[in-house]
Amino acid sequence: MMKLLHLTLFLLIAIENAANANGARHHHSPKKPKTHKNPRKLSHAYAPSPTPTPTPTPTYPPSIPSDPSRDPTQPDDNTNTTCIFDVTEFGAVGDGSNDDTAAFRSAWKAACQVENSVVLAPSGLVFMITSTIFSGPCQPGLVLQVDGVLMPPDGPDCWPESDSHQQWLVFYRLDDMTLTGTGTIEGNGQKWWDLPCKPHKLIRFFMSNNLVVTGLRIQNSPKFHMKFDGCEGVLIDKLSISSPKLSPNTDGIHIEDTKSVGIYNSVIANGDDCISIGQGCSDVDIEAVTCGPSHGISIGSLGVHNSRACVSNITVRNAFIKESDNGLRIKTWQGGTGSVSGISFENIQMENVRNCVIIDQYYCLTKACRNETSAVYLSDVTFRNVKGTYDVRSPPIHFACSDSVACTNITMSEVELLPYEGVLVDDPFCWNAYGVQETLTIPPIDCLLDGMPQSLTENSLYGC
């Protein structure tokens, strides 16, 4: 009997201990997700592959579900701070043929006065609007959420005579504004591409700060898909930009006179540069972008009409460029002044690209350009871990620097470029280019000059 009692007590204690152990496992607090204190400066380790590794995702304003039945003057049920201004409540029809411009302008004007408000273009509808300027200043936190389709009139015959042919949607003098959604911005560019006149840019942000553009599909622009000028603090993430390979001047994202820019996790296929960086830009971070077919990622053209250009601190990394006329390009006109410095191209994968790595200081659109005695000064340009295949119609590496102003401090490291088809390995071309080959480059770039040039003529022309 005593042994039976001891055995019973032992089993009871064991069962109680097991229950306590299981209960303890259920009371562990889950780890909080990490957040990025500075979403405009993101980076991570990377090895080149055909599909870029996505960067960490910054925190965005909450997405508002499309709900045309909501009262636009009432706050959303899920938050006490967001007011939704649904364009259908302001008279938008969304059938793709009626002009919904007035409704968008009215919704914007009302939302502009309310902090953290949302102008909503709901899903399932197609909104046609004409050339419009959405201007500020507005209360902070304004969101334009496009969940449906937004498009301009279909071609020049439908374009109002009074509207500008140079731009369609302009966002002007705004601070802390977001353009987002799950929808599409359709440019209807097909009927413009064959015209001799220069058609309009699709979306332009002008003299605005602290901008977020994310999630949208933007396609078939008559000219540039997106342009930012005179802006500071721009975050672009998870965009899809597309137009046919032969559509002229359809740059994906163009920036000029714009500072502190992050472009991440986006796919761009178009008829011109994927991303073009004009004069006056600095502190630009581009990561995890798939580019092509296109004309590649370009700095320039700079210095046109003897103008001054200053570009600095540009980083492109973890990118995939395919089926493109150019890869990584810096292009300047003869006769310009100013400088391009602090440029880094790192972890880039190429596939069947002409002119994979190119510096062209003789950029010209005609055969009448003359050699000038001044040029934009290029220095501190790094190409690191650039690998893949090139189209044998052009040498894979081409450094054509100005006769009068040499390029300096070019660094080549782990550059391996092989023919996409055939066995030809073209020798790189260099002219007045100074730099170092840190590792063996394929093909070898023995044409770089050692050290520094003896002098730069009129140094004052090249400071920024």
Description:
Helix content is 9%, strand content 40%. The chain is mainly β. It has a 19-stranded parallel beta sheet that branches. It starts with a helix and ends in a 27-residue tail after the last strand. Mean pLDDT is 85; it is low at 1-52 and 67-80. It comes from Perilla frutescens var. hirtella. Residues 23-82 are annotated as: Disordered. InterPro entries: Glyco_hydro_28, PbH1, Pectin_lyas_fold, Pectin_lyase_fold/virulence.
Cα distance spanning the termini: 97 Å
Range of strand content: 35-45%
Q: So how many helices?
A: 3
- Number-wise, the strands total 30
Structural class: mainly beta
Task: Work out the helicity level.
Answer: under 10%
> What value does the Rg take, in angstroms?
27 Å
Summarize the structure.
This protein is mainly beta.
Topology:
Blueprint: H1 2-26, E1 83-86, E2 95-99, H2 101-111, E3 117-121, E4 126-128, E5 132-135, E6 142-146, E7 149-151, E8 167-172, E9 175-180, E10 184-186, H3 190-193, E11 201-206, E12 209-214, E13 217-219, E14 226-229, E15 232-237, E16 240-242, E17 253-256, E18 259-269, E19 275-277, E20 282-291, E21 297-302, E22 308-322, E23 328-332, E24 337-353, E25 357-360, E26 377-390, E27 397-400, E28 407-419, E29 429-431, E30 433-437
Parallel strand pairs: 1-3, 2-4, 3-6, 4-7, 5-8, 6-9, 7-10, 8-11, 9-12, 10-13, 11-14, 12-15, 13-16, 14-17, 15-18, 16-18, 17-19, 18-20, 19-21, 20-22, 21-23, 22-24, 23-25, 24-26, 25-27, 26-28, 27-29, 28-30
